[in-house]
């Protein structure tokens, strides 16, 4: 099982480290990352293996959103199955 984590906001030092650390704190293993900075705006998509998640997924997703509030970013974690269903024609 994997989660798709998206992060958007003003670029600052340490965004990837903060998100990856929060993932590790809850037992999510970061597998892939793509990120870009466009005119000081940071955008990232991260895939994380959530097989060993230490808490229910909704708790993890709320923790990621809380990290976003703490860092003035918009962070969403979506279960891969839901992400796939949302993007199917």
**Approximate shape:** globular
From the alpha carbons, calculate the radius of gyration and give it in angstroms. 13 Å
Spans with pLDDT under 50 lasting ≥5 residues?
none
Structural category: alpha+beta
CATH class category name: Alpha Beta
Q: Looking at the chains present, what oligomeric state does this protein adopt? A: single chain
Largest sheet data: 4 strands, antiparallel
Q: What CATH architecture do you see?
A: 2-Layer Sandwich
Plain-language structure description:
The protein is α+β, with helices and mostly antiparallel strands. The chain has a single domain, classed as 2-Layer Sandwich (Alpha-Beta Plaits). The chain is about 35% helix and about 40% strand. The protein contains 3 helices and 4 strands. The protein has a 4-stranded antiparallel β-sheet with strand order 2-3-1-4. α1 packs antiparallel against α2. The longest helix is centred in the last third of the chain and has 15 residues. It is globular, with a radius of gyration of 13 Å. The two termini are about 20 Å apart. The mean pLDDT is about 95.
């Amino acid at each position: 099982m994997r989660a798709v984590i998206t992060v958007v906001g003003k670029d600052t030092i340490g965004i990837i480290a903060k998100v990856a650390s929060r993932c590790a704190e809850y037992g999510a293993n970061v597998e892939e990352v793509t990120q870009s900075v466009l005119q000081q705006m940071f955008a990232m998509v991260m895939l994380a293996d959530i097989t060993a998640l230490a808490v229910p997924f909704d708790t993890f997703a709320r923790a990621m959103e809380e990290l976003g509030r703490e860092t003035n970013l918009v962070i969403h974690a979506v279960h891969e199955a839901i992400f796939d269903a949302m993007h199917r024609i």
